[in-house]
Design goal:
The chain has 387 residues and is an all-beta fold. The chain contains no helices and 30 strands. An eight-stranded antiparallel beta sheet has the order 7-6-5-4-3-2-13-14, with no helix packed on it. Strands 1, 8, 9, 10, 11 and 12 form a six-stranded mixed beta sheet that branches.
């Protein structure tokens, strides 16, 4: 399901009309939110990415810089130029390489445009469905509503604003027609000389690094055969004004969404699915999920010596191509399982030390990683996001 957040801005009492779009502007910075779509309509926050341009060398091109923190980790991602006569913007990876058209603000209603964004997969041709005007820092700018050419009118797939760029982010033009699944992007704001000149009214924030609420723990306590079991789901509400707990799939136990209590007396040994999501009612979507089992075992006399499973580190998360798994000891063999959000096993392997897994072939989205030790104990149950 795709969501298109409104780009409507309240017009000031006095505004001026301006034709200039000035995408390739060294005084601006763009903040873009990454969003992963998982199973059960859970949205994962991929963090905020920053973009800015700089005139490093004489010529038509400006250097594109990207950062995850906007302070110290800027790195070059290509070159951008604009043709002020044709109102078109182009991007290339290196000087001398072929460039692709990423914006065309000369479009009229009914015109077709083919975006060739070298940062994304091939996009379908888009048609300009309609055009209106919005106030950007005291000047009226064109806002273009685009749809995939083969779709019926009114099925907007992307929005462009002069001087601001795409609703998917300044460097993500064409994303709406590229056919990606499992995630999306959203331009949070654009600033000029440190002053915000445009902000998405839905998010009303220039920096988001997490969606709330979040579950404090993503695993359940062990249950014992023929003994009453009770567990309360704990939630960090963060900045969420109102939340809702949803028992998506509860096997062998009951769940009270008002209190977060899971209870029941198990009569069988084994592992029982207990999937719970939590929804941010202001956002209108789920922000976290417990995708785990309640394990029912026999109660036996236990040793006073602790034999706790050791934890495994996994990073980075979100990731783009490689995931690193760091095992605490080399003499233990761990079993790694990678699942789709729908529960389908797509990878299985063994870990004995630090392993870097190449997952570049996976499509963007949310996946579940489970790792068990030699005794079959679950030592990692974590969601990962591929951007």
């Amino acid at each position: 399901m795709k969501y298109f957040l409104s780009f409507c801005l309240i017009l000031a009492n006095c505004v001026t009309f301006a034709q200039g779009y000035q995408i390739a502007d060294t005084s601006k910075m763009w903040n873009t939110l990454g969003i992963g779509h998982g199973g059960w309509m859970v949205y994962m926050c991929g963090g905020t990415t920053f973009h800015k341009f700089s005139q490093n060398e004489p010529g038509e091109y400006l250097t594109v810089y990207e950062s995850q923190d906007s302070l110290i980790s800027w790195h070059e991602t290509g070159l951008i130029r604009e043709d002020t006569l044709t109102q078109r913007v182009y991007y290339t990876i290196f000087d001398g390489w072929p460039e692709g058209l990423i914006y065309d603000f000369s479009l009229e209603v009914g015109d077709t445009v083919q975006v060739v964004n070298l940062l994304l997969a091939d996009a379908e041709p888009m048609v300009c469905d309609s055009i209106d005007m919005v106030n950007i820092n005291g000047s009226l700018k064109k806002r273009l509503f685009l749809r995939i050419a083969e779709n019926e009118p009114g099925n907007t797939c992307e929005i462009w604003i002069e001087s601001i760029g795409s609703n998917f982010g300044i460097m993500n033009s064409g994303y709406g027609a590229a056919g990606y699944a499992g995630g999306t992007f959203n331009l949070l704001c654009c600033s000029q000389n440190g002053n915000t000149i445009w902000m998405d009214p839905f998010w009303a924030d220039c920096y988001i690094d997490a969606f709330y609420p979040q579950f404090v723990s993503h695993a359940y306590d062990t249950a014992y055969l023929n003994e009453y079991y009770e567990y309360y789901v704990s939630v960090d509400t963060g900045n969420a004004p109102a939340i809702e707990l949803i028992g998506e799939y509860i096997e062998g136990f009951t769940f009270d969404p008002q209190t977060g209590k899971i209870s029941g007396t198990p009569t069988q040994l084994g592992s029982f699915d207990c999937i719970i999501t939590v929804k941010n009612l202001e956002y209108g979507f789920c922000t976290d999920i417990i995708y785990s089992d309640i394990v029912v075992v026999l109660r036996t006399n236990t040793s006073t010596i602790k034999d706790e499973p050791e934890k495994i580190k996994i990073y980075p998360n979100p990731f783009t191509s490689n995931l690193t798994f760091e095992c605490p000891r080399d003499n233990i063999k761990y079993s790694l399982y990678l699942y789709t959000p729908q529960g389908s096993l797509i990878r299985e392997c063994f870990l004995t030390s630090t392993l870097q897994a190449d997952l570049s072939d996976l499509t963007a989205g949310v996946y579940l990683v489970k790792i068990k030790d030699e005794k079959g104990r679950l030592v990692l149950n974590e969601r990962v996001v591929k951007l």
